[in-house]
Design goal:
Elements (H helix, E strand, L loop, with lengths): L2 H4 L18 H8 L16 H11 L7 H18 L11 E5 L5 E5 L3 H19 L5 E3 L6 E3 L12 H17 L2
Antiparallel strand pairs: 1-2, 3-4
Helix pairs in contact: 2-5, 4-5
Length: 180
């Protein structure tokens, strides 16, 4: 795969051509996938304030002012990734307000701007997905920890792509059995 195609992974492309998560949950998925640990660190879409603002503007999540705020967003992203792969994570508290639309549906909205606002917006999406039941299908790949939406009937998907991470895992297991 060419580098320009690899750079599109997480935005326009998904490993194994999986469809993105439904609705607003796709934005949370894209946020977690702003960096893939298999790629160079300078490809991180939240690497510094300039890179983060470019991605945040495209995603409609606001802006940040400093590289320290970009660092906070990266730490939050990794905490979300940890949750998706089943590890404990410490999410820093942020303020949200509850808004009620004309149909009586509630929605968590950020109180502040900057990194706190972005974090609150993403947490609002997570809360909404928990209420709809879609959160149960969000997973992190066992191999690369890439966030994906499990559309399998029995919710048993374990890898972002069977052809990539599933194959790596199975090949390693085969090698260990053949070379004890």
């Amino acid at each position: 795969m060419r580098d320009e195609d690899k750079r599109r992974i997480g935005e326009e492309l998904e490993p194994g051509d999986r469809p993105k998560a439904p609705g607003r949950l796709a934005l949370l998925q894209r946020f977690v996938n702003t960096h893939n640990h298999d790629f160079p660190a300078d490809w991180d879409r939240l690497g510094d304030a300039r890179q983060a603002n470019a991605w945040l503007a495209k995603a409609g999540l606001g802006t940040i002012a400093t590289d320290d705020e970009a660092r906070r967003l990266r730490a939050f992203r990794e905490a979300l990734r940890a949750v998706l792969v089943g590890r404990a994570a410490d999410l820093a508290p942020v303020e949200v307000r509850i808004e009620i639309d004309a149909d009586g549906r509630t929605r968590l909205e950020p109180v502040a701007g900057g990194a706190d606002g972005v974090i609150a917006a993403v947490l609002g999406i997570l809360h909404e997905a928990q209420l709809t039941g879609d959160w149960a299908r969000m997973k992190g790949c066992r191999q690369c920890e890439y966030a994906f939406y499990d559309r399998s009937k029995n919710r048993s998907a374990a890898w972002c792509s069977m052809a990539i991470c599933g194959n790596r895992t199975k090949n390693r297991a085969y090698y260990r059995r053949q070379h004890p």
